[in-house]
Amino acid sequence: MDCRNWAEDSYRDSILQDRETLSRTVFRTAYAPNPNPNPNSDHLVTASSDGSIAAYSISACLEMGCGSSRNQNWLAAEPEFVIRGHDGPAYDVKFYDESLLLSCGDDGRIRGWKWKEILESEESEQGAKMKPVLDLVNPQHKGPWGALSPIPENNAIAVNSQSGSIYAAAGDSCAYCWDMEKSQVKMVFKGHLNYLHCIVSCASSSQIITGSEDGTARIWDCKSGKCIQVIIPEKEGTRASFPCVSCIALDSSESWMVCGKGQSLSLWNLPARECVSVARTQASVQDALFDENHILAVGAEPLLTRLNMNGDIISQIQCAPTSAFSVSLHPSGVTAVSGYGALVDMISQFGSHLCTFRCRGL
To answer: What is the DSSP letter of 144?
Structure first.
């Protein structure tokens, strides 16, 4: 090594950049809508802790492979599009009516971009300056002497294109219903005692379900704005170590709900309003979804867990993220697991690893 060309500042910058990359987190992934059933022609959209919203070509990522798991030398993927979506972490991404890409984040905003313009954009470089066509900001609360509260963050969003609504799970213990056409809040759902983690929309019954840090899930009537039922998932012993309801998912019929709370997953029959089964996990659950008659769950451990409706574990697959925050399912059966370290692990319907890549930051 030739010490005469030693650049200490460059070395320090590289160390800081490596540490920042390792601590970056992908909080949510979503498969882009595509009429072509071939997953290789699709895109995967990510929302990350640096506020970036990025779109990755699945075919390009599959060509990369899995890198080296022994040395954790994961390959970095180049996004086809990346933009600074939020000032602060971006927590969720959803598609509205297959034409609008929505995201929410710590800045209390919901922003939307036309998906077709993103695909046609030539600005794939860092910090592409594409202005959102939708920019909603949570209302502030008035305090004594006219003081305004900070803008509450949005931790999750849900959409109902039939009613033209976007629902936001906010940090002020409220859920907000936004009118897409008017870009205004048309209803506020109040009742939780702490901030909201998750929210889902039941289009068939005009209801939403929210999960909160207060340890409850609530079912709301979207017409009246009233809470029609409070669900308290089963506690772990006398006092739960992680009391919050971290995730909620519905099956395709909207008759079954899975609810993650601490180190447990509870399955509920919504028409009967009854808990059918409870499954225990080794770590706190952070996301879950239905895969036909099975449940996929990820959490604060590097595992993708598949369970049946009775709560029995069918399989567990080792994943790259040491803590996984999101699991997404493609119609072809390909699963994307993302989380700490800005890692995304794509797994086939047979349980084999198709590719693992690290998302690029801003």
So the answer is: G
